[in-house]
Amino acid sequence: MSSKDRILARIRRAVPEPGPDLEIPRDYLHAHARRTPAERVDLLAAHLAEYRARVHRTGPGGLPPLLARLLGERRGARRVLVPPGLPPWWLAAADDSLVRVPDRASDTSADLDRADSVVTGCALAVAETGSIVLDGSPDQGRRRITLVPDHHVCVVRVPDQVVDSVPQALPLLVPTRPLTWISGPSATSDIELDRVEGVHGPRALDVVLLGPQ
Questions:
Q1: CB 141 within 8 A of CB 83
Q2: Nearest to 101 by CA among 77, 120, 118, 87
Q3: How far from the centroid of its chain's Cα atoms is residue 129's Cα?
Q4: What is the CA angle 53-58-62, rounded to 5?
Q5: What is the DSSP string of 96-165?
Q6: What pLDDT score was predicted for residue 193?
Q7: What InterPro entries does this protein map onto (predicted)?
Q8: Which residue has the higher pLDDT, 192 or 181?
């Protein structure tokens, strides 16, 4: 018997066989503080900004002009990907020269790469980690349309879509859906800690916190 076999055998003896009566202790904290809805949203905004996302706050009346401005600020941006369930009024103020590209199953990665931006909603946002969760719902589209374009504008309805922590978020999400967890723009660092953005997803992330008024 090899050393590997002996180690694995010891692990098997130490770990009980899973069964219907096996209870897994979940005595960890489900949130690290008691917060009002406003405090929860403020914490989310602070963590998003720390991750180098640009955070904006507005009400329904200010959303169309804000989205038009964010898309217009992208130099040379002319094509924006639009999920099938995105509310049409969100982009009502965008320039007529902006080409709205629908999410098509036939599009290749090269087709998606020709889009300059993508605008989506979200499923949830987690204040304590500064994370946004997408689940492929109609206002978000398929996962790949939020990974290929260089610029992602994500609208979070506050305070309803914001929870304190990951343990609070998980029961509200459907595990069989294609969940994408986003914490700031895509970035990585090499061994010398040189930060490179846009490696695994959008280089720029704008998060709009959409309040009720």
A1: yes
A2: 118
A3: 12
A4: 120
A5: TTSEEEE--TT--HHHHHT--EEEE--SEEETTTTEEEE---TTT--GGGGTSSSEEEEEEETTTTEES-
A6: 61
A7: FTHF_cligase-like_sf, LUD_dom, NagB/RpiA_transferase-like
A8: 181
Radius of gyration of the chain (CA): 21
Strands 151-157, 99-102: pairing kind: unpaired
pLDDT of 182 reads: 93
Distance, CA of 204 to CA of 108 (rounded, Å): 22
Judged against a pLDDT cut of 60, whether residue 185 lies above it is answered with yes
The string over 160-177, giving b where at least 16 C-beta atoms fall within 10 Å of a residue's C-beta and e elsewhere, is: ebbbbbbeebeeeeeeee
pTM (predicted TM-score): 0.83
* Contacts for 206 with CB less than 8 Å, ≥ 6 apart: 53, 54, 56, 70, 151, 152, 153, 154
Average pLDDT (21-41) is 85
Planar angle of CA 174, 176, 179, nearest 5 degrees: 70
What confidence tens digit (pLDDT) does each residue in 52-83 have? 999 999 999 999 999 999 999 887 678 999 99
CA angle (91 as vertex; 48, 208 as ends), nearest 5: 15
pLDDT of amino acid 6: 92
Fold of the 35-210 domain: Rossmann fold (3.40.50)
pLDDT at 65: 97
Both tokens assigned to 15: 């770990």
- Which one-letter amino acid corresponds to residue 95? D
Domain coordinates of the chain in residue numbers? 35-210
Query: Which residues, at least 6 apart from 64, have a Cβ–Cβ distance to it below 8 Å?
Result: 89, 90, 91, 92, 93, 94
**Nearest-angstrom CA–CA distance, 197 and 213:** 34
